Amino acid sequence: xxxxxEPLGGWRRTHSCGELTQxxxxxxxxxxxxxxxxxxxxxxxxxxxxxxxxxxxxxxxxEESADAHGRAHLLRTEYVxxxxxxVRPRPEGMANPAMVTGxxxxxxxxxxxxxxxxTPPFAIEDRSDAxxxxxxxxxxxxxxxxxxxxxxxxRHKASQSVRRYLDGLGFLEIETPILTKSTPEGARDFLVxxxxxxxxxxxxxxxxxxxxxxxxxxxxxxxYQIVKCFRDEDLRADRQPEFTQIDIEMSFVEEEAxxxxxxxxxRTLFRETIGVNLPEPFPRMTYGQAMAEYGLDKPDIRFAxxxxxxxxxxxxxxxxxxxxxxxxxxxxxxxxxxxxxKEIDELTEFVKIYGAKGLAWIKIKDDEWISPIAKFLSxxxxxxxxxxxxxxxGDIVFFQAxxxxxxxxxxxxxxLKLGERFGLIDDSRFEPLWxxxxxxxxxxxxxxxFAAMHHPFTAAQDGHMELLRGDPAKAMAKxxxxxxxxxxxxGGSIRIHDAAMQSAMFDALGISREDAENRFGFLxxxxxxxxPPHGGIAFGLDRIIMLLTGAKSIRDVIAFPKTQKxxxxxxxxxxxxxxxxxxxxxxxxxxxxxxxxxxxxxxxxDL
RNA sequence: GGGGCCGUAGUUAAGCUGGUUAUAACGCCUGCCUGUCACGUAGGAGGGCGCGAGUUCGAGUCUCGUCGGCCCCGCCA
Length: 607
Hints:
Mean pLDDT: 93
Distance between the termini: 22 Å
Low-confidence stretches: 593-607
Radius of gyration: 30 Å
Number of strands: 22
Shape: globular
Helix content: 25-40%
Strand order of the largest sheet: 6-9-10-22-21-20-17-11
Largest sheet: 8 strands, mixed
Structural class: alpha+beta
């Protein structure tokens, strides 16, 4: 069978495969696309032709064109065709209501074979459930699946929406360097060796933080960029080594101006991409309240369960574990008494992930408390617990008694788990939240010193700079995070715009004058030349797109993502380079990289 | 650095306490079929179980190691 490819030869598409409906009936059209399904009845051949916009049924019949029909038997899945023909309504009773174009079909008069295809390693269909590693190796095929393609169409709309919104407010889109100086924000840098300055390295930006501040010193007043950032840290379902931020900075502002701009952006984005209207204004919560009631700094406020501090109630308890703990918190679940012993054991294992030693619990029955620990609790303690946690028969209440970090993390994450278990979370809702009043500094117990919680350029709240000497833990920052359904989607701050203040901050962080000069000298210099008050915010675009599309993994909203080991299964990056390349860069490897056997792993499919 | 799950035809999976030629569905190939739409139908080809050791008379099944993928802790906003 001959499978000659033909040139387009002047043919042009007149329509996409997703738009032909009854209005088009009678017209001669030209469409091009991929063979999705083939139904060859011998005397009559149906093909569903797919392009980015959808599917259209085309029919090859001898009555229409014997030649077109005769040649069509060779067609296979994923062949690329150009067809010319007439749009006509489908015969009585033959319409397919499941298809947008299901009322019509195209009778083929002429067609060209533009490309053949090997049998794809997995079916190009939404219901295809091939292993992700296989899909990543053949990412260009995976992206043909409408479900995935849809994510990128939405991502495009989101980017356009952001650009329109910010342009409307006078923000300038300005690019900043990718090859830059290491300006650490806490994460590990990706380094790029310099050929012209041997032995020295550029770093890929963890974010354009310092550049956007310098653009404010430059007097450009309002900057934004949709920009790649790079952090060489371990990956997660929502973390990639390179990811995209919507990076924004503005001059002559305080927190409220940045926050209302940012709210407008998120609200516009949601309205223009998925038609969801977010509340106005977004509710707010302080960091302190978030930690106290939710145990996490990014509360999911779609359901009402809250943590209660019961330290004082059990301070004098016979139960030594409670009496002696630095912090004791309770989490009551109305109606949670139905949990089985097995489920409670599983939850106990779950909290151990976060450093908990165990999980105390009490089931409240009508006249008794079922619990391994109830016997230690006095009547007065019981009364106080009932009051504090609003306990009622049928409830269960969990306790965590330990160091505050462990208590909050364990119960905070248990709360999310229980929210799922009891169906308390309405997936169709979007509930944004501002978290404000973060501490400026965070104590690092390993290094026994304070580090910036946000980053070292964040301004202290008015009057709090003085606290840095006496009681650094009490100093609050002009910082704000935006949280959506328990996901941090953005965060920012008002920056220090005064060189002396910035130096004082470096002092507080234990960064020597000399060190500060080496690493941030250019910033300290710039701040001496009339820096305007400024601040900004950065959004994690990938995470926002995840929420907008309902994707389970960040990889489904990034066109060419990396695996958990930060490799690309399609290009096989990272890879060895030639000795000549290394020599040119003045690099000698300390150890010979261990050569992997060249055998194909489970993704190897070539015949 | 650590914990957990997984790896059997092109794909998705089954394979019980180790036992003759490793199952199924979809896909693929060939024939038939003028109203299908994940077309139908008759037939056919295709893997030695990620890789390497070990235990055993015997290993897809057990042990150890190793490679790869996913989820999580640490790390990272």
